[in-house]
Amino acid sequence: MIVVAPKDRVDHLRKICNLLGIANIQILGARVANKRLQMIQGLAEVRTCITFFADDDVFWRSTFLTYNLAPFEDPNVGAVGGRQVLERKQDPNMWDFLSAIYLERRIFEMSASAKIDGGLGCLSGRSFGIRTSIIQDQNFIDEFKNEKWLGVLPLIAADDDNFVTRYLVENGWKIAFQCAKGGELTTTLEDNHRFLAQCVRWRRTTWRSNFTSLFMQRIIWRDQPYSTYAIHLSSFNPPALVLDSLLGFLLYCAINTVPQQSRYPSASTLFPVFFLWLAFTKTIKFVAYFRQYPSDLKFIPVLYVFSYLHGFIYFYTLLTLHRVCSLSGLKEVHSSFADEHGRRTGAAVAYVTL
Fold first, then answer.
1. In principle, which of 56, 94, 111, 182 could form an S-S bond with 63, CB 3.0–4.6 Å?
2. Could you give the CA distance from residue 176 to residue 135 in angstroms, rounded to a whole number?
């Protein structure tokens, strides 16, 4: 195991390893806390054919490696991602709920797209496995370290997992998604208003990466038609607040084109059915989650409200794509080495295995 952490934390980590009696960990000190640079630094020490990356806020099941190594039996598979669920608290609040369903939505969508045409929106940087030969190639390292969006905006502090995903697709590698519970990991997300700052970061990186995939690389149009439609193009759809309002208005207009005495079913029937349909579309992906945690049904109104308020994030991030920064709460702090994904500790772990 190789741990790459900021230099001022190396001694502390070594003391922890000594106290726990752990000897098979190599700890490297990074000059700056930057995910991409730390990954490159650790890669130089890897001697195995498969590398697993893990951030410092993920927890693997005991069977994680067994399940996530299995897809590499296919020589065309270049990387493997898997299920991620929130580390559940005894008494979760609404922010915990929103974090949990964010991860549940990801499982639902990625399981479907990976099965249909092998496409993934993004190979999550929290933890994934990849063939070492891919990421030790000098072309990968050079592009990874020097990526610029539209050739102008440096992304050294952002979008690392999106770059890896696009690089694999561009170079003809398959990406597997391990749906089995045995390959699952748990993680933590913000449990307060700072979750909104994470949403801002996620949305910005989605805008940038999907634009690159659709209009610059363009390979997905041919190789992953379903994923292109369901994941990439859908990210450009109008937000729910706009789209649902428009649907409601069109339904109202359609009803009023029919004389009142000829309306069947009546408007008093159609609109409740319309609202029930909207509610169904916003909850269908989370049926399995609510079956597992029925006590969270009380948060369903939060889900509906957030789905509409997210439209403001949609427009805000579209207007601020040039910002690559870390957010503390809702205040932006500009830094050339701040991490776009909210990993404020700067510690990255590479777990290497055959």
1. 182
2. 17
